[in-house]
Write a structure and sequence with these properties.
Helices cover 31% and strands 24% of the residues. The chain is built from 23 helices and 34 strands. Helix 20 packs antiparallel against helix 21. Bound molecules: adenosine-5'-diphosphate and zinc ion (2 copies).
């Protein structure tokens, strides 16, 4: 018997737990030690949620270690209780949270919370309870006929009086930690005694007993009642007589219903088989290898993934499949569910809190072996991972933009090291970082160069829109595109059109003084939405009526400029009056299920033209689409972001890949004002390598990723001055802390310097090896963020605006 156990038997009061408490503030970014009360000594384990006293409050915390405390010579506070019977976090995830906090310069608690479904994070209720009779009338009015009142109910004019009452201990403020998780149960009836003697007089009770007997297993109570048309009182009588017992069984919501149809399982073609045979042995050998699966659009990467998962299941192991949120359509889920049935859990933001919680519990309880989900599914609490797949690995949505600012690929590598499992990054347009790693041999490159359906890649043409204007065509649809659309409509084929800009006019300008209508809260011009007659800020949601006269000079000569999807839709209706047109963008997909409805209508050929923003660029696979038009390839090119060319290349290549997936003849038409730009040229030739080498040259000159690692520090404040000053202080501090090899840029005010009334200053660090970085960043997080100045640190910056 280990020593600490025997001490338990003797004294029993020496066990303590280190707990990360649910407060996101710098002084508490460390575990606190609490005594485990004797009655909980056998209950508390690392990874459990506990309720602990913290200052005057009761808070939720997560146990990270349980240990024997030898020299407690001061009064430790005690754990008050636990919300778990099984730890929420596995030992691996406890360690991962710690590593993640360091990797991303985040608070420990933020990392823990990022791993768990919303349902099990704490919700606090603040209650006010009267403690004295002599309450001020203003305060007393709240407790007229109630024992307690929610703190949120107090009107702001009464708050000072209430505060005084609390201070004078006339009213007590009580925190209640509420578990948001709601597990649903189904009631089953189990037969324990089929003695018909006991129910001789009761026909209905007899009926129930023989029904249960014939079933030979517990049956849903609802089902029994429906089948036999018996009331609750009949069942209750049987329970009272001891013939039947009720059992509560955890029920799991099934967000996609039960899938009965079966997906077609393709035999792998030659290329796919080679990919499979390169990767699968590493799964069996438990060699933690990372593969970059570079396959052209339509090369059948999904089929390779599925075969690999089969290999994982044969080993008795588990797999995580990450797909971008937008690609996680019911169609995608269907592929996996129909192939792997009940072994699949799905996690994504479209599910309700309860549904997500159910899916998560299936994983935690080992009821499923595969998790398909968006970014946060990388934390799926599996304990025996054999494979992690990240599809469309170049997607920026794999990076979380709030604390913890993690990148799913980096988290995957941590989990890979722990489980010694295989990591597969798949894409038709890998990120420059990933492809460069593959070139260096850090990742193993596996290529699929042909389409799985053995159809050729589409023919691509670039249309120079500057010439179009010279010809006198001012429409956003070039002659070439117009003719080709007509041709496809005649053949009963379908067309996808991409414009990565929503709304009607991109901006509104006064032609007398040149003033552009701007958002009140941001340095962003307002977009005109015609149907609802509003000007909108696409960042903060600010809205206003379109002005009749210029707010600067009073002129009436105000016009809208630039095309958004709403305007294109209007124009298409005029050009093709006999065709149904579907538009898919943020504005048409706000309602739950709208996204799916539009895609279904298109699949059922209720419409022949699908127009949309980048939402339509990914993953869609429609049989009859033989034309893709990119209306303005330049929208992403001019963004103030060093990845603008990369994003342009990816977007065009991806959307072009929607064409001709099942047909011999298909076309892609790219309209642009920059026909000679290398990103557009390379995309039109589907030539990834050409793009890669050109872009790498530019990155090397600019000393960007992947030649340098980058860290972005964003300083936000209510005033420009304050944010800039703090930027200067941070730069001074970093100059002293970092080696001379690192490059320090800033403080700079970004192009969009104000968002939501917050003023921004940036500091950027470019480095190759910087041993002092982690500690310097922690210092910054601890000392340079204060009440009015907020500092955010991003070690995987995706946008540098
Ligand atoms: P990717 O994700 O690489 O763009 P998909 O996985 O969507 O490609 O596959 C493209 C199409 O090819 C799908 O319709 C799929 O059913 C089909 N497909 C995949 N593998 C095969 C195969 N071995 N034989 C025939 N068709 C296949
Ligand atoms: Zn004006
Ligand atoms: Zn705004």
């Amino acid at each position: 018997m280990p020593w600490h156990r025997s001490r338990l038997f003797l004294g029993g009061e020496t066990m303590v737990a280190d707990v990360i408490v649910d407060v996101k503030a710098k002084p508490v970014n460390r575990p606190f030690t609490y005594r485990i009360p004797p009655e909980l000594v056998d209950v508390i384990e690392p990874g459990m949620r506990v309720v602990v006293p913290f200052g005057s409050r009761k808070l939720l915390g997560y146990v990270v270690t349980v240990r024997d405390d030898e020299d407690t010579d001061f009064e430790l506070k005690e754990i008050l209780g636990t919300n778990d019977l099984v730890p929420s976090l596995t030992p691996e995830l406890i360690q991962l949270a710690k590593d993640l906090a360091e990797d991303t310069a985040s608070f420990y608690i933020s990392c823990i919370q990022a791993m768990l479904p919303v349902a099990i994070k704490a919700e606090y209720r603040k209650w006010l309870i009267p403690k004295a009779d002599n309450l001020a009338p203003q305060v007393a009015s709240y407790f007229q006929n109630r024992q307690r009142v929610r703190a949120e109910e107090v009107r702001s004019e009464d708050l000072p009086a209430m505060k005084r009452a609390i201070k004078a201990e006339q009213v007590e403020l009580v925190y209640e930690v509420k578990d948001r998780a709601s597990i649903q149960y189904d009631t089953y009836l189990r037969l324990v005694d089929a003695d018909l003697e006991k129910v001789k007089q009761a026909k209905k009770q007899q009926l129930v007993l023989s029904y249960l007997q014939s079933c030979g297993r517990p049956v849903l109570k609802k089902e029994v009642q429906k089948a036999l048309q018996v009331s609750d009182s009949v069942i209750k009588a049987l329970i009272d007589k001891g013939c039947v017992v009720e059992e509560q069984v955890e029920s799991f919501r099934t967000p996609y219903g039960d899938i009965k149809r079966r997906d077609q399982r393709h035999e792998l073609n030659e290329e796919q088989r080679r990919a499979y045979e390169t990767i699968a042995p590493k799964i069996k050998a438990q060699e933690p290898t990372t593969f970059l699966l570079h396959g052209v659009t339509g090369s059948g990467k999904t089929e390779v993934y599925m075969h690999l998962i089969e290999a994982v299941l044969e080993e008795g192991k588990e797999a995580i499949v990450l797909v971008p949120e937008i690609a996680l359509t019911p169609q995608m889920v269907f592929h996996f569910k129909s192939r792997f049935g009940h072994q699949v859990a799905v996690l994504h933001s479209g599910l309700s809190i309860g549904e997500k919680y159910d899916e998560w519990r299936k994983i935690r309880q080992g009821k499923v072996k595969i998790c398909v989900g968006a970014r946060s599914a990388i934390f799926a609490p599996f304990t025996n991972l054999g494979l992690i797949i990240i599809d469309e690995e170049h997607e920026s949505t794999y990076k979380q933009e709030d604390m913890p600012r993690y990148h799913a690929i980096e988290v995957a590598k941590r989990r890979q090291a722990y489980h010694r499992c295989v990591l597969v990054l798949g894409s038709a347009t890998p990120s420059l970082e990933s492809y460069a790693r593959a070139m260096k041999g850090v990742y193993q490159l596996v290529e699929l160069q042909h389409r799985a359906t053995s159809t050729p890649l589409p023919n691509t043409q670039i249309v120079d829109m500057t010439l179009e204007a010279k010809k006198g065509n001012l429409s956003i649809i070039s002659d070439k595109l117009y003719q080709t659309i007509l041709d496809r409509l005649k053949k009963d084929e379908q067309v996808i059109l991409l414009l990565n800009r929503r709304g009607y006019h991109h901006f509104i300008l006064c032609r007398s003084c040149g003033y552009a209508m701007m958002c009140e809260n941001c340095d962003i011009s307002l977009t005109y939405h015609k149907r609802i007659q509003r000007l909108k800020c696409h960042y903060c949601g600010y809205e206003t009526k379109p002005p009749k006269v210029c707010p600067m000079c009073g002129s009436e000569h105000i016009s809208g400029f630039g095309y958004g999807t709403e305007k294109v839709e209007e124009e298409l209706r005029q050009l093709f009056p006999d065709t149904t047109i579907l538009r898919m963008d943020v504005d048409t997909t706000r309602r739950k299920g709208a996204h799916e409805r539009i895609l279904r209508q298109f699949r059922e050929k209720k419409a022949h033209i699908l127009l949309g923003t980048q939402m339509i660029a990914k993953g869609l696979d429609f049989e009859d689409v033989t034309l893709v038009g990119v209306l303005m390839a330049d929208t992403t090119l001019k963004l103030p972001d060093f990845r603008a060319s990369e994003r342009t290349f990816q977007l065009i290549t991806q959307v072009a890949g929607r064409a001709g997936r099942h047909r011999e003849q298909s076309d892609v038409i790219i309209q642009t004002y920059n026909p000679h730009h290398y990103a557009i040229q390379a995309a039109s030739q589907q030539n990834y390598k050409a793009f890669f080498y050109q872009e790498m040259r530019i990155r090397r000159l600019g000393r960007y990723v992947p030649y340098y690692f980058m860290c972005q520090i964003v300083i936000a404040s209510d005033t420009l001055q304050e944010s800039y000053r703090q930027g200067e202080r941070i730069v001074r501090f970093l100059k002293e802390s970092l080696s001379s090899e690192s490059i320090l840029l800033g403080p700079v005010i970004p192009q969009v310097g104000r968002l939501n009334n917050q003023y921004f200053t940036h500091v950027i660090i470019k480095y190759k090896r910087e041993p002092q970085l982690k500690s310097a960043l922690e210092q910054i997080l601890m000392t340079y963020s204060s009440g009015s100045v907020h500092v955010a640190i991003d070690l995987y910056p995706t946008f540098l605006v």
